[in-house]
Amino acid sequence: MNKLLLAVGVSALSPLAFSKPMIVTSISPVSMIVAAISGDRAEIQQIVSSTASPHDFALRPSDLRKINNADTVVWVGESLERFLEKPLENAGKEESSIEWLALKGVELHNFGEDGHDDHGHDDHEGHDDHEGHDDHEGHDDHEGHDDHDHDHDHEEHDDHDHEEHDDHDHEEHDDHDREELTGHEGHNHDGVDPHVWLAPENALILAQAVTMRLVYLDSDNASYYKGNLAKFEKGLEATDAEIRKSLSKVKTVPYIVFHDGYTYFEEHYGLNHVGEITVSPERKPGAKKVAELRHEIEEHNVQCVFSEPQFSPAIVKSLLDGSNVKTAPLDPLGGDIKLNQDAYFTFLNTLSGQFLKCLG
């Protein structure tokens, strides 16, 4: 009889006692940093396919289920993933989410006239340059995303909410930790360049926030998560130093990017970006812009025009028709990188290698 009661007790407790925290992420670079800290102790479910772009993404019902079942949603912010705003609000996940753009200490840039204006957290208002992201609102059509095929339904997590972790004795820290982690202070991020994952210093800040959240959700593995954060910080420092040394050889070589989304990386490593085909990927350049770009290529002796794998290279080929300027893909999302604890380092190395290959 006692054995039967014990078995029933273990069975009843198992969804809570043995399930891993479920972290839902928006895009690949976010998943990379979460994976660096979580290792094999948490489950990661990514919403935007690694081969898709967040700039024109629309959620599907399976994505909404992921959000509803998540212990925490980690995303960049509304200026990149506007499609997540309403679902997070409807699911009551706003306060428990980690919004990268709103984290304290994150270095932010605004889209300025030259795409390289540097501003702090308090100067994000009144910038209408980046209106193209307004297209993310009202996406009710969930078709056309055949490449988004990783629909891992996890109904077993339906009851796996933060309330179930009260036995971790973190009640007195809940409000404070939540404010520190999510940074939901009403920041207006209109006009902000959201590609924060391209700056190593910003990656570390997200890693710290993810560590705090996982320690809160899964205190039994607190030392594991903190140890992974220490490894990440050490690895990030070494990777950054190596990339800085290698890219110093091509710092003065002029180039044009497909869209103005590399400012964080370029300014961190001092690269010579002289133009972009478009500010927002969803906007195709007109004939006037193409003529201006051809003039810039000639005027600045541009050595390379980068395309992106998430978008058709046809415009780049058309732009360079009849010229000897090199072209190469530059992937700001790391779509081909396998997700593991070293994925973010691999991403940075791969991106720097793509620059070197075309500029060297």
Explain how this protein is built.
The protein contains 11 helices and 10 strands. The chain has 360 residues and is an alpha/beta fold. The protein has 2 domains: 2-102 and 110-223, 3-Layer(aba) Sandwich (Rossmann fold), CATH 3.40.50; 244-359, 3-Layer(aba) Sandwich (Rossmann fold), CATH 3.40.50.1980. Helix 2 (28-38) crosses helix 6 (200-217), helix 6 (200-217) packs antiparallel against helix 7 and helix 7 (222-247) packs parallel to helix 11 (343-359). The longest helix has 26 residues, at 222-247. The chain starts with a helix and ends with a helix.
Topology:
Blueprint (H helix, E strand, L loop, with lengths): L1 H16 L4 E4 L2 H11 L4 E4 L14 H9 L2 E4 L9 H6 L7 E2 L9 E2 L63 H9 L9 E2 L6 H18 L4 H26 L6 E6 L3 H7 L2 E7 L8 H13 L4 E4 L6 H6 L6 E4 L13 H17 L1
Parallel strand pairs: 1-2, 1-3, 3-4, 7-8, 7-9, 9-10
Antiparallel strand pairs: 5-6
GO cellular component, one term: periplasmic space
Organism: Marinomonas ushuaiensis DSM 15871
Family: Belongs to the bacterial solute-binding protein 9 family.
Cα-atom radius of gyration: 22 Å
Q: Shape from CA axes? A: globular
**CATH classification, class level of the largest domain:** Alpha Beta
Tell me the series of helices and strands, N- to C-terminal.
HEHEHEHEEHEHHEHEHEHEH
Mean pLDDT: 79
CATH superfamily of the largest domain: Nitrogenase molybdenum iron protein domain
Number of helices: 11
Strand order of the largest sheet: 2-1-3-4
Termini gap: 75 Å
Strand tally, please? Answer: 10
Taking the sheet with the most strands, its summary is:
4 strands, parallel
Structural class, by secondary structure, is: alpha/beta
Which CATH architecture of the largest domain? 3-Layer(aba) Sandwich
**Could you please say which CATH topology of the largest domain applies here?**
Rossmann fold
- Count of discrete structural domains: 2
Low-confidence stretches: 3-17, 113-187
Beta content comes to 5-15%
Helix content: 25-40%
